[in-house]
Design goal:
Layout: E1 7-13, H1 19-30, E2 35-37, E3 46-53, E4 68-76, E5 78-80, E6 89-92, H2 99-105, E7 111-115, E8 124-125, E9 128-129, H3 130-135, E10 145-158, E11 161-168, H4 174-184, E12 189-199, E13 202-203, E14 208-209, H5 210-215, H6 218-225, E15 237-240, H7 244-251, E16 256-257, E17 274-280, E18 283-291, E19 294-300
Parallel strand pairs: 1-14, 3-12, 15-17
Antiparallel strand pairs: 1-3, 2-3, 4-11, 4-12, 5-6, 7-10, 8-9, 10-11, 12-13, 16-19, 17-18, 18-19
Length: 302
């Protein structure tokens, strides 16, 4: 693959494979030099996994991971060691909450809440991953962390399960929410299905399944399934560079003057420094600070 090619793949990761394994398969299939992803998905969860190709990997920190959407299903009456179907059952209850009782309490979880991550998570405890300590069957506790839940919607219940849809912020654990909803209803519960339907500008409608992606040819990938590096970034100050001389100077890490009237978002005060993304034909070529009309590159992607 052309090493100058950059952009995003809006991947739909299946159940049963880690995020790392998914991107490794893509890297090997298409001979991509550098690849990375934003917002890890557990192996037992499916859904949207933003993937960056080559120099676009430098833009991963700017993906809007503060807006994620999930569908999930809770099985009532059982708590597991991992808060999902993979773990051992550690508590049981005969209480199956009614739809009315669920609707009465779910709004208590909206806004900023304190959440204890699942023990089968990647959080480090004394330098070790929590899931490693759990696998070694050692006893430990995790500290609660502040997370944000924007919306929660109860969909329906069937027998001993209930379906929900949420929009949440960065670092949110769906498995922990399921466990805590059950606690609030004086019972136990764990997730048996998790689907991530959106991460920032990456959504299910424009995604491609991993199996489908691995079946296509390299040229088809480049022309049909790679989104420009700028297109998946939102809420940013951007500017399209058209002059060859400016592109050349940027490639050398030099400062350039830009016309603030052509900024994609509103203009800045001349004394204010702001992070600006410069693009050429839809792909980011640099990002850095703007002081007045003078752009100083922090990173160059050409």
């Amino acid at each position: 693959m052309n090493e100058k090619l950059q952009g995003w793949i809006n991947l739909y990761k299946p159940i049963g494979i880690s995020s790392f394994s998914a991107i490794y398969k893509i890297k090997k299939k298409f001979n991509i030099k550098k690849i990375g992803h934003a917002g890890t998905l557990d192996p037992n969860a499916e859904g949207i996994l933003p993937i960056a190709i080559n120099k676009t990997t430098k833009l991963i920190p700017f993906i809007n991971t503060s807006s994620k959407k999930y569908f999930f299903k809770i099985k009532w009456g059982e708590q597991t060691s991992t808060d999902d179907a993979e773990g051992e059952i550690i508590n049981v209850s005969k209480i199956i909450p009614s739809e009315d009782s669920i609707k009465n309490i779910i709004n208590n979880f909206l806004g900023y809440i304190n959440q204890i991550p699942p023990k089968a998570s990647a959080i480090k405890v004394n330098g070790k991953r929590a899931y490693t300590i759990l696998r070694d069957k050692k006893n430990f506790n995790l500290r609660e962390k502040k997370v944000f839940l924007k919306t929660i919607q109860f969909i329906e219940s069937t027998n001993n399960t209930s379906n929900f849809f949420i929009e949440c912020g960065k670092g949110f654990y769906v498995r922990s929410l399921a466990r805590d909803i059950a606690y609030k209803l004086h019972t136990f519960g764990h997730t048996i299905e998790i689907k991530r339907t959106k991460v920032g500008n990456f959504d299910q409608k424009t995604s491609i399944l991993l199996d489908d992606l691995l079946k296509i040819g390299q040229s088809e990938l480049e022309f049909n399934f790679i989104h420009s590096s700028l297109s998946m970034l939102d809420d940013i100050l951007a500017y399209e560079v058209e002059e060859e001389r400016d592109l050349y100077d940027l490639s050398l890490g030099k400062k350039i003057f830009i016309n603030k009237k052509k900024l994609i978002k509103s203009s800045l005060n001349s004394d204010k420094k702001a992070l600006v993304f410069l693009s050429n034909k839809g792909n980011v070529v640099s990002f850095g600070k703007l002081t007045g009309d003078l752009f100083q590159p922090n990173k160059v992607l050409t």
